[in-house]
Amino acid sequence: MPEARRLEALAERLRTVDPIAPSPGAKIRGWNLVLAGVTQSATRRPRVSVTRLVLAAAAAGVLLVAGALAASADSLPDSALYPLKGAWEQVRGTLAFSPSDKLAFHLELSQTRLAEAEAMLARHRIDLAGRALEALDNELDDAAELVQTARQNDPAAAADMQSRLQQAIATHELQLSGLQGQVTNPTALTAISRARDRALAALQAAESTGPNGKNGNTSPSPNGGRGSGSPHPTPKH
Amino acid sequence: MRALGKAASDDDRPLIERVRKGDQDAARTLFERYFDRIYNYVYVRLGRVEDAEDLAIDTMTRSLTRLDLFQDQGVAFSSWVYRIAHNATIDHYRRNGKVTLVPLENAILPQTADPSELALEQLSNEDLRAALRDLTEEQQQVLILRFFQDLTAAQVADIMGKSVGAVQALQHRALGSLERALQGRAAN
Hints:
Number of helices of chain B: 8
Largest sheet of chain B: none
Number of domains of chain B: 2
Oligomer: heterodimer
Shape of chain B: globular
Structural class of chain A: mainly alpha
Shape of chain A: elongated
């Protein structure tokens, strides 16, 4: 008989083998164990679900915070996300280690504050614009202090930093004077004028040899060396 | 008990969802659907009633109480249950020191017997079951699932994690090995 037919016959013979039934006792025992297990697993299911929920919530939280941080990057002072922006800036500030990096960080923030002030003035939020301008000058003060400190430790680096600060303040001065020409609100005009004065004061502080020292640099100030006082006459409209 | 068809597998899904929620009636239905099959599958592999009962109970308990481990990703619930039974059987072999890994065509069977002399009609069912146990693990598994459990080659492939072609080739070799095992037993 050919192999194929033999094996086919053997397969057919296997199909006729009667199944063996388990004893009723085994079936009862098995069902009782399954029943107990199903009941137990049903009662412990919430614990598993809670664990998964906590993990899912944590993941969602991370995504939410990351998304909110990303969204807050361009937020303005009248936005609900603005506090997040400030918090994130503080975190970034801790990551700037060298004096040069810190200066770049403060100059970047000063530019951001100026842009915010312009936006708030455009929306007639004079109070918020005033705060943004004040924050701008705080950044410039910090930058000037960095230059002063650097001058004592590394004069060459300090010269470079001072040059960068001068350029930044010159740019701010141009923007602020332009802004001053556009607004009519007396409070806003006063805030802008004060901001320009403080910016110049910061530059002069940076040029001095120390916090209470004399000027050590004769480079002209961005407004053409008009000196301190009130060099920004409020335009009449 | 024959023919665990596709329809049965499809019917399992709503029952599984209910069992996950603690529905005892659904668990009972699945238990009744699979317990005898799994017992029979394990019994043919082991040949001992007590061991087969223990392993069948263990398989069904694991299957129905750890449904959180079963994810319906192309593998049928029936395949999952058979895989658990298979693994339980292998564990049992290991615990008891039984290892059947040498293919019989390379080992113990006489190659000189005339195949035509094998009188299938004179073989008892128990002779066939006993001869099956002389085969390798995979050969036993494929013959039991295909002919005792009456599953299709596709279903067996799903259970064993092989292609249908591989199952068909394995089945052919297993039948040849079984034939030689029966001849060897007849010669003794």
